[in-house]
Design a protein that fits this description.
Rossmann fold; 42% helix; alpha/beta; 286 residues; 2 domains; 10 helices
């Protein structure tokens, strides 16, 4: 446990915690005093297969370091399994303080090659799992009446798009919307909901051309985990509804912004297509 244990006696659930950013986050949380539920079904990058030893291996690492952890190996894109994950945290450790959703898969394809199973699988594993876990966690937070933290995972592809990642981009964009709406709806319960948009070399990204030149020592998962710790701790204060990008040593904030716009002289008249074309630069000015 570190001297400045930010999560001392807190209970944290981390999905996708068997590898990559999820694993780094679970380990760091444990080092900061959290009792961690390590959730991972051990599937391959494309969501196929399952290996329960993946989550259990991370639990063994945490225990070996003197921490407390328990494994959950279910598929949290299924409602009953997402509920059982949160139930495990409450039953094992008496409550819940933070949920970090890192579970996800990748089946990269361009638009013309995208098939329905690939789109559905990515959306189910990346979006539905986050929604189901957040719902179950929010119910516990409401019962406990002491607030809580939810950290979701979007991506640059979801915010700007990326060639060959149609399904992943759509899923990540949905996570942005999920983050914003949950932040609004759970604010009264003092639940802070924020998201990460990592630029990191992991099993999920290492096959993409832009990541092949990124070394682990400067773009590894260990750069992202401390930002997750910040968002899951008291240090984030009242921060909610934000998206923090982590690209190695650089951290930035992404927000949707609206241009200044333009208004017609006659408020009773709609714009014409010709007027939009003529004044587009004006209405798009930031």
């Amino acid at each position: 446990m570190t001297q400045d244990a930010l999560l001392r006696d807190k209970v944290a659930v981390v999905t996708g915690a068997g590898r990559g950013i999820g694993r780094a986050t679970a380990l760091l949380f444990a080092q900061h005093g959290a009792r961690v539920v390590v959730s991972d079904n051990g599937a391959d990058r494309d969501g196929t297969g399952a290996d329960p030893t993946v989550a259990r291996g991370v639990v063994d690492e945490i225990v070996a370091l003197g921490g407390a952890a328990v494994a959950h190996t279910g598929d949290v894109s299924i409602a009953s399994e997402a509920q059982s994950l949160i139930d495990l945290a409450v039953q094992q450790y008496g409550g819940l303080d933070a949920l970090v959703c890192m579970a996800g898969i990748a089946r990269d394809k361009t638009a013309l090659k995208m098939d329905e199973p690939s789109f559905d699988a990515v959306y189910r594993n990346n979006v539905k799992s986050a929604l189901l876990c957040a719902q179950s966690a929010a119910r516990v937070f409401a019962q406990q009446r002491r607030g809580g933290h939810i950290v979701l995972c979007t991506s640059i592809a979801g915010l700007f798009g990326n060639y060959g990642q149609l399904n992943g981009s759509a899923a990540s964009a949905a996570i942005y919307g999920l983050t914003r709406t949950l932040a609004i709806e759970l604010k009264k319960q003092e639940v802070r909901v924020n998201a990460l948009a990592p630029v990191a070399r992991t099993r999920m990204t290492e096959e993409l051309p832009m990541f092949q030149a990124m070394p682990d020592e400067t773009y590894g998962a260990h750069f992202v985990a401390p930002v997750a710790l910040f968002l899951a701790s008291k240090l984030c204060g009242e921060l909610t509804g934000e998206v923090l990008s982590v690209a190695g040593a650089k951290v930035s904030v992404y927000r949707v912004v609206e241009s200044d716009g333009a208004v017609l002289d006659d408020p009773r008249a709609p714009w014409t297509a010709a007027e939009l074309a003529r004044r587009f630069d004006e209405l798009a000015k930031m």
